[in-house]
Amino acid sequence: MRLRIIVPKESSPSLMEKVNAWNAETVLKDESGHQLSLVCEIEPSILRDCDALSKCSTCNAFIGDVKQYRVHLKSEWHKHNLRRKTRQLPPLTADECLASVNRLFIILSSFKWDY
């Protein structure tokens, strides 16, 4: 089973310990930005027995343990996808969300505001 896991960079050592303990094969590892995105192949039976991961159905991503999940729920990425979900739009990945926010910032910063 292919699994995509996204955690804050400071949590990456504990995630890598778990991935190694599961004997999972890392397919893709991206440490850009403020988070680690990891795609790995894992035995389905291990995932069923594991309560170390939480899945966000709004963002369609595995987040990490319960503490990381709570942090994720307060993130701009999650809030952005909640707004998209209410408009019946598909979720953005963390990188797509960051690019979208950056584009919006560039557009807004080009305006001259009179106060």
Automatic annotation (TrEMBL):
Sequence ranges assigned to domain Ribosome maturation protein SDO1/SBDS C-terminal in this UniProt record: 1-53
InterPro entries: SDO1/SBDS_C, Znf_C2H2_sf
Matching Pfam families: SBDS_C (PF20268)
UniProt name for this protein: Ribosome maturation protein SDO1/SBDS C-terminal domain-containing protein
Protein species of origin: Papaver atlanticum
